[in-house]
What does this fold into?
Amino acid sequence: MDNKDKKIEEMLKRYKLPDAPAELKARIFQQKKKKINQTILAVAATILIAATTTTVWQVKLQPTTQETNNLTLAQAKLSITRAAQAAQLLTVADIFANQAGGEEHAKKLYCEIADSFPDFNAGIQAQLKLKKY
It folds into this structure.
């Protein structure tokens, strides 16, 4: 510090500023606390809304257990129906194969069964019977 700065510092030390009244200080600091509390509440509310929205969105996107059970039941019914259709067609094809002159028609049915129902027992049996022809 140079001399000029020292002189200014000494002059300022002589003059003491009056302190603000206690009532004014209390009012100022309460307002700051209120602003801080309001800011904290606003941030907390925003986080809560975001978390709730995310949770609800994810829950709505996932199928419920009941929906999953209904879907599984519907898939099982469809699979049973398809297996029954395949078995009926295989029986009809076997009947044609055992009759005189029905071998060509039986062969066509075996091909259709093998193509349409490859994952079912009747489809596998139809493929085996086609190999005999």
Notes: The chain has a mean pLDDT of 80. The radius of gyration is 44 Å. DSSP finds five helices and no strands in the chain. The helical segments are 3-14, 22-61, 65-98, 103-116, 121-132.
